[in-house]
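My current task is to audit a protein record that another person submitted. I have pasted the whole thing underneath without changing anything:
***
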Amino acid sequence: MTPAPLAARLRDPSGPLFFPVTAYGPGGSLDLDVYRTHVRRGVAAGAAAVFACCGTGEFHALLPEEFEACVRVAVEAAEGRVPVVAGAGYGTALAVRYARLAADAGADGLLALPPYLVLAGQSGLLRHYREIAAATALPVIVYQRDNAVLTPSTVVELARTDGVIGLKDGLGDLDLMQRTVSAVRTEAPGDFLYFNGLPTAEQTQLAYRALGITLYSSAVFCFAPELALAFHRALETDDLRTVHRLLDGFYRPFVELRAQGRGYAVSLVKAAVRLRGLDVGEVRPPLHEPAEDHVEQLAQLIERGYALLEEGA
């Protein structure tokens, strides 16, 4: 049986969207065996999709051949049970190259990361994403954040572009997102998808749900899938008591700890995966490892999170 198109598979997810970390060995080289284990465990735990080699997966630190190898392993590990979406970024020419590598590796779609360094105008950004979408048959989700902030009219044009299926928001401007959703709904009606892509998106997901945005990325799923699944299930069933208990007892303190260091949105997650028993190695520079006392606080916080699950059982 041919799998349904990516948009259909993502529209009503059965669980969180999984953004695996990339595993490195002691010398800093790729450890594809550990990476395969990490992805397999996430799929078995109930991930609705695998987003390989994106922000949490240190896309910025991967050589093209490493990127292709990781995406290929993720596709193999997912075994068709859930879709695999790969990152693609830098300038337009390199983003197109990564898009084609992802297609060759068997990915089901692309997450188009912000262009490297430059502050481009809306027409340039639109052309950039259209060229990525035209480079392969893979559907594209555009990631809005940092130097890639889109006006509602630009998103309308993207929604009209063949191959572009959604927008992931890592900016957090709810007024802008409301105007964007409204503009697309009225000017380019269809099944355009929206994702909450803020770091530790669970912290803001109640607000995004009020805009009708139910899809979100979950870095916590990398190291505590039971917590991420419990939160996702509570949102889907309007169990606000559980949502608030997990927000107050785990997610808010985790976000506050994450704010203690630059790059902790990745390195703290990777440290947490190691604490949970899978040695995925350290982050590559220019990111750095969390301070020792922060790792100790992280271990205590994970323990507290699982205790919250026991209390609610």
Notes: Residues 292-312 form the longest helix (21 residues). The mean pLDDT is 96.
